[in-house]
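To assess whether the prediction recovers the assembly geometry, we first specified each molecular entity separately, as shown.
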Amino acid sequence: GENVEQHPSTLSVQEGDSAVIKCTYSDSASNYFPWYKQELGKGPQLIIDIRSNVGEKKDQRIAVTLNKTAKHFSLHITETQPEDSAVYFCAASRGGKSTFGDGTTLTVKP
Amino acid sequence: DGGITQSPKYLFRKEGQNVTLSCEQNLNHDAMYWYRQDPGQGLRLIYYSQIVNDFQKGDIAEGYSVSREKKESFPLTVTSAQKNPTAFYLCASSIDGGTYEQYFGPGTRLTVT
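The predicted structure of the complete assembly is given in tokenized form:
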């Protein structure tokens, strides 16, 4: 089955700095790669996603890149703010079934 | 408001008892999912259903059971056969069984002692 590895597990940055989270996947048939943000005690919420026919996607301060050959994708957050502090999960999906990474706890220090 | 509701938010049970977690959605989504989340780990798929009256086992289905008699409802039963049931349980739905965003409920924290 699919295996998704996510790094780092924790990330601490100063407000205004950039944050990068990386994921690798094993199943070359995976074709949809969402990123979710989870705040304490809540369910995850989609922040950005990318499909396998696209290499990069951007939405304001958030961007995702996908390298299908290397089977890895990354989340980039620029100009980080304290409200960006949360747990971030990547996922690799195929046929409606998603496999999630173990999550990255991002802390943005004011 | 459209969304997914899970109840209750906190649930306490004694070991050996079965317990059912509720999940309801009014998004008119065909697909629904149950995940288990443990501290420091990602979401692990328990069961999923792509259409009413049909469901498939996920990666960690042992000790759990589900039903999908109505489009909007996908209850999860944690049976006494589940060896380590204490966890945070998340229900999600998506438009259909294809590759689309999943919408998550607020979760149920189950504690079994």
